[in-house]
């Protein structure tokens, strides 16, 4: 006579359940801790980016100040940056690039169950202060590159008081005013005044721009008066061809001018002040390393 036997499988089910819970806990640890580590890595990148951009504000003129600014900004935004983690190098020009390495310890929580206390994360950023190929907020007054403080021995020279003449300069009907919108010199006085007071509200590239043929210095007096004690960004040109509204300035760069006073008189006017180095809103060229340097730089991340 045969007998039937029944096997008790409840113990196996408990074992499988326990194993499943262990695996599930491991997955939770992986998801939560790896997410936490990733956030820490992103914060390290943000610290490196912001510190590099802050330090580049002092380049290329003052590398030591650039390092100090980067360190100060990093300390105020999460830390993880020591003195040896900041370096100033020469990319396109001497002392034009600053590199910042940010390091963080990202601790683990659930991963400690598996003897993983945390991980070390690090990110690097580099920012360059370079001559902009395009500039924002340009004023409609041109400066000849032959000005002695721009082309003289050892120049461009900054912080030296000088006078910029505005009048018939190089071509009949050209008065040192430029039509930034290239609309054949048909810009109204109110528009020119706005460009003086607020700057042209678009990015402008280097190249040819129409002359504004009017002598409007008296009408620009109010706008220029509002800018006394501030810096204006002027286009620098190397040639002027044509006549009147058909004349064109070949703009090769940008220069900042600290305005101290203005005098407008009929067909002539003068601006008194000095050229100065500035960090200005602009877009650097990605390929041209040989743009004329008149002391105007824009800052951007390059790594």
Helix and strand arrangement:
Layout: H1 10-56, H2 63-75, E1 86-89, E2 97-107, E3 118-130, E4 132-138, E5 143-144, H3 148-151, E6 162-166, E7 178-179, H4 189-198, E8 200-205, E9 207-211, H5 221-226, E10 231-241, E11 248-265, E12 268-276, E13 278-279, E14 282-284, E15 296-301
Parallel strand pairs: 5-10, 13-15
Antiparallel strand pairs: 1-2, 2-3, 3-15, 4-8, 4-14, 6-12, 7-9, 9-11, 10-11, 11-12
Describe the protein in words:
By secondary structure, the chain is of the alpha+beta class. It has two domains: 10-128; 133-301, no CATH class. Helix content is 26%, strand content 34%. The chain has five helices and 15 strands. The chain has helices spanning 10-56, 63-75, 148-151, 189-198, 221-226; strands at residues 86-89, 97-107, 118-130, 132-138, 143-144, 162-166, 178-179, 200-205, 207-211, 231-241, 248-265, 268-276, 278-279, 282-284, 296-301. The strands form three sheets. Strands 5, 6, 7, 9, 10, 11 and 12 form a seven-stranded mixed β-sheet that branches. A hairpin with a 7-residue loop joins β1 (86-89) and β2.
Helix content: 25-40%
Distance between the termini: 85 Å
Give the overall pLDDT as a whole number: 86
In total, the number of domains comes to 2
Class per helix and strand makeup? alpha+beta
Beta-strand residue fraction: 25-35%
Distinct helical segment count: 5
**Can you write the helix and strand succession as a string?**
HHEEEEEHEEHEEHEEEEEE
């Amino acid at each position: 006579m045969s007998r039937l036997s029944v096997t008790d499988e409840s113990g196996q089910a408990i074992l499988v359940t326990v194993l499943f819970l262990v695996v599930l806990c491991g997955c939770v640890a992986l998801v939560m801790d790896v997410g936490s580590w990733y956030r820490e890595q992103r914060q390290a990148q943000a610290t490196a980016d912001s510190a590099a951009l802050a330090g580049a504000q002092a380049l290329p003129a003052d590398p030591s100040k650039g390092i100090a600014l980067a360190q100060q900004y990093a300390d105020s935004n999460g830390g993880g940056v020591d003195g040896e983690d900041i370096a100033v190098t020469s990319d396109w020009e001497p002392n034009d690039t600053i590199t910042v390495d940010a390091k963080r310890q990202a601790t683990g929580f659930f991963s400690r169950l598996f003897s993983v206390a945390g991980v070390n994360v690090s990110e690097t950023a580099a920012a360059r202060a370079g001559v902009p190929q395009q500039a924002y907020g340009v004023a409609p007054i041109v400066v000849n590159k032959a000005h002695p403080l721009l082309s003289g021995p050892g120049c461009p020279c900054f912080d030296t008081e000088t006078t910029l003449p505005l009048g018939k300069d190089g071509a009949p009907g050209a008065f040192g005013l430029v039509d930034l919108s290239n609309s054949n010199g048909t810009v109204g006085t109110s528009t020119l005044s706005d460009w003086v007071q607020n700057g042209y509200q678009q990015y402008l590239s280097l190249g040819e721009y129409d002359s504004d043929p009017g002598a409007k210095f008296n009408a620009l007096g109010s706008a220029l008066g509002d800018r006394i004690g501030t810096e204006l960004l002027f286009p620098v040109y190397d040639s002027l061809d044509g006549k009147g509204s058909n004349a064109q300035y070949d703009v090769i760069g940008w220069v900042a001018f600290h305005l101290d006073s203005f005098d407008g008189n009929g067909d002539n006017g003068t601006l008194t002040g000095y050229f100065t180095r500035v960090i200005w809103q602009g877009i650097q060229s990605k390929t041209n390393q040989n743009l004329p340097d008149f002391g105007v730089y824009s800052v951007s991340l390059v790594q």
